Amino acid sequence: MGKYDYDLIVIGGGAGGFVSSKLAAGLGKKVAMIEKDRLGGECTLTGCVPSKTLIHTSQIAQEIRNAKKYGLTIDSTAHINTDHVMAHVRSVVQKVYDGHPPEAFQKLGIDVLFGAPQFIDNQQIELNGKRLSAKNFIVSTGSSPLIPPIEGIDTIPFLTNQTVFDLERLPLSMIVLGGGPIGTELGSAFSLLGIDVSIVDQFERILNREDGELVDILSSKLIEDGIKLITGYTPLKLASKDRKITLTIQNSKNQTQEIKADSLLIAIGRKANVEGLNLESAGVEYTLKGIKTNHTLRTTAPNIYACGDVVGPYQFSHVAEYQAIIATQNALFPIKKRVDYQHAAWCTFTSPEIAHAGLTEREARETYGDKIKIFRYEYRNIDRGVTDVADTGMSKFICDPRGNLIGAHILGARAGDLIHEAQIAKSLGIPFYKLYSVIHIYPTFTDVVKHAAKLCYIDRLQNNPFLRLLRKLL
Hints:
The protein is α/β, with parallel strands linked by helices and 474 residues long. Helices cover 32% and strands 25% of the residues. The longest helix has 18 residues, at 48-65.
């Protein structure tokens, strides 16, 4: 290897770091992975794993309350005790964490080191008083909750996704500041667990990156389930009195109102974890939004790459893994690959879920004008939606003039799973109407894809010039 201690040093032991270090080790490179605290990153410890566990538990609680609609009767004295919910969440996190201990990486030939590294230059770092060198580096340090400079925030014991899962008992009421994926997911879950939840967002709609039509349906369902949605308001100040938190908010017309609750969850956004790395000494440019990279995920230092939340533009574990593969290959090989987010997809696990792949209707019209075609199908019209009493939701597929998918959006049960059929067709350039010819198992929720594809197929037939001429002749 020459003058370097390692071929590659990966800074960050989360999703991106896992993939980068394993891939490099698999290619025969000498690799070290450095983590400040515990392996697993945001997703395992304070993100995906605990939130999805909480969401699943909350949905079970909701089903118990709604047992009557399934023909079941529960004793009127029955009470859902939530005292042990958060302990259950933490036990699941521990189980997942135990699944990837440092020893598992060391068996693969990866040196796992703990501490807070600082760059000395672009090929050396200092860790725990020692200098380590590498031919290449990958920075995958993730992100943290962004705390807004609201008047009085220093006097309030607020929660974030990093601390909310440490609660021993659930509060009676909660203000969720932020109507993005984290705020709506956790707000939805806590509401189903019996907490009085108010979600406050500065935009006129929650989940402002999602398709507006589906968000409107989701918002109605969340309100029906008891959540107070307060949109178009920005926070002014916070205060605490008689064990209650008071949030003063203001809209664009300078109208103000106060909201009171037992707890406050801040979920307005994320900031890149760049502090303390001394990136300046390595020649790496960055802002709080992320490390500056080009289309190959190379930073402004020629031998340092970055991936995951610390880069953006999408802060999801699956995007971090995608970026990690490209960053690692580009760090180790001369032929460079470009990142392509054209087929980025994600799901927000509210109740019901809302999944997203490609352009929204608004974005599609901005690009294609009125030439787009939209095919919708409602959950209430599929038999599985009826059998499972899961009839809230709709699939929505947006096609270009040739019938190729440019956007796919699903609101409803299993949306995060169902979106993959459209995602595969979109990514591989398979015309949407061809999905209708694929045998789908009955009865499943995939009918919201199949029947929408059938509408596309019929539309194609109706607009076929030969068939139109034949109809005229007949």
